[in-house]
Amino acid sequence: MSVVLPLPDPAPRAPRVDAAAQDRLARRLRRQVGQAIADFGMIEDGDRIMVCLSGGKDSYTLLDVLLQLQKKAPVAFELVAVNLDQKQPGFPAQVLPDYLASIGVAYQIIEQDTYSVVSRVIPEGRTMCSLCSRLRRGALYRHAAENGFSKIALGHHRDDSVATFFLNLFHHAKLSAMPPKLRSDDGRHVVIRPLAYVSESDIQAYADARAFPIIPCTLCGSQDTLQRRQVAQMLQQWEQQHPGRIDQIARALGNIHPSQLADPALFDFMALGRTPPAPSAASAWTDAASDPGEARALA
Question: In whole angstroms, how large is the CA radius of gyration of the chain?
């Protein structure tokens, strides 16, 4: 009598990596970032660029693609990764330095306890993003000025810009988004967003493929009542129902027709269709005078 023993369950296989798909994705990101840089004149010869690295998928992708483009760019520029350690409890402070050292990238760490300020000022249950972003922006701008950076690169992408457009539309009654390039309010800094043409889904796929050591935000990223999160959910539903809608909205942000809106500061509606003013009596007599000498006398 033979006994049949059950075979052990096979060890789970790692998901098959589609190298060709990854290569296509990487090429697409390089092309989109390169196009944005060209369209908006983001990088010039001799620039010293501060790449703001938070530990999230967007800023990792930004740095990675810029490093690739730097090797073949038509101009020479320097990249320095800068992280602001806001002293959030449990923040793994060594993750970014270890990663940046492993890929040989110059980096600087700013230490500023903005977490305590935000936690003290913002009541429990209220969103912290507004104050947190202002404190973070102030620290980064100050560091850029003190260290001679000519540009500040941020990891905002196409979907961020579209979401900002709707936030400003719904909550501030204005049509504005995130420009790919801007000068700071004090006029001292030029901020660039090289991921302006890149979708969040592509960034997520790229970050997964590259296995970046992601550091989740436990301060504002865990808040469920954020208006930005609600808008993002709305956009995701639209995209599921009508694929390509986010891209269409993003394209519209670069195709503005002031005469089709209602801002008199952008288009002279007062002059549109206005009847030319009737000539004054003096000018009528002057025009009627056939002799130049008589015209001068009448004048």
Answer: 28
Q: Is the pTM of this model over 0.85?
A: no
Distance, in Å, from the CA atom of 224 to the CA atom of 221, rounded to the nearest integer, reads 8
Q: What is the rounded CA–CA span in Å between residue 82 and residue 120? A: 26
> Are 116 and 84 within 8 A, CB to CB?
no
* pLDDT confidence tier of residue 235, bands split at 50, 70 and 90: very high
Identify the top-confidence range among 44-53, 136-145, 271-280: 44-53
Nearby residues of 115 by Cβ (< 8 Å), 6 or more positions away = 86, 87, 88, 89, 219
H-assigned helices in 75-218: 95-102, 114-121, 129-146, 158-172, 200-210
% of residues, the chain, pLDDT over 70? 78
Q: What is the mean pLDDT of residues 48-57?
A: 96
State residue 216's pLDDT score: 82
Beta-carbon count within 10 A of 88 CB: 18
Centroid of chain to Cα 229: 16
Answer positive or negative: Cα dihedral of 283, 289, 294, 296.
Answer: positive
DSSP at 193: -
pLDDT on residue 15: 47
Length of the chain: 299
For residue 62, count CB atoms less than 10 angstroms from its CB and return exposed for 0-12, middle for 13-18, buried for 19 or more: buried
**CA nearest 83: which of 68, 186, 62?**
62
* Residue 60: how many other CB atoms lie within 10 Å: 24
